[in-house]
Specification:
The chain has a domain of 50 residues: Arc Repressor Mutant, subunit A, CATH 1.10.10. By secondary structure, the chain is mainly alpha-helical. Helix content is 64%, strand content 0%. Helix 7 crosses helix 8.
Length: 157
């Protein structure tokens, strides 16, 4: 008996459906989503028009994206690093400023928590102080916050 072979073809996924699938998983910035979609776009596709339609419908929101990034990063990174990441993803400067105001309120306590988890004890000498300061600076904390964390008295926590 001859074996029947079926040709299976993958269904054609439209750019709109692909964009909705991405947004169903997590929030994206406009720049980030446009970059992801550009790999699948054809000459007839108009990515900016599609993204504008999504923004009008409320499916694509820079404010929600900013809020998500800030919420996910604030416990591990400082405001400088979070702001840099948002700028890389094309978020508007006024949204970044608003997010930084929110981050500044808890930045010192977040820096202390990050420092405590990594080091746990005050630096014994200048080399140790510099090492801990470089670590916190790499995490995106400002020098004023770093000085407060590393020069803190023992009775603070």
């Amino acid at each position: 008996m001859p074996r029947e072979t079926r040709l299976t073809t993958k269904p054609v996924v439209t750019l709109r459906a692909r964009a909705l699938a991405y947004l169903a998983r997590r929030e994206y910035s406009e720049k980030e989503l446009a970059h992801k979609l550009s790999a699948y776009a054809e000459e007839s596709d108009d990515i900016p028009a599609l993204l504008e339609d999504f923004k009008q419908r409320g499916w694509l929101s820079e404010a929600r994206y900013t809020e998500q990034i800030v919420h996910a990063r604030k416990s591990r990174f400082g405001s400088v690093r979070v702001a840099h990441e948002l700028r890389e993803h094309g978020v508007a400067e006024e949204l970044i400023e608003k997010a930084m105001d929110e981050l500044k309120d808890s930045e010192l306590s977040n820096a202390r928590a990050v420092w405590q988890k990594k080091f746990g004890e005050a630096p014994k000498n200048r080399e140790a102080w510099a090492k801990q300061a470089r670590f916190l600076q790499g995490r995106g904390f400002g020098f004023d916050v770093i000085k407060k964390v590393l020069n803190a008295d023992e009775d603070i926590d």
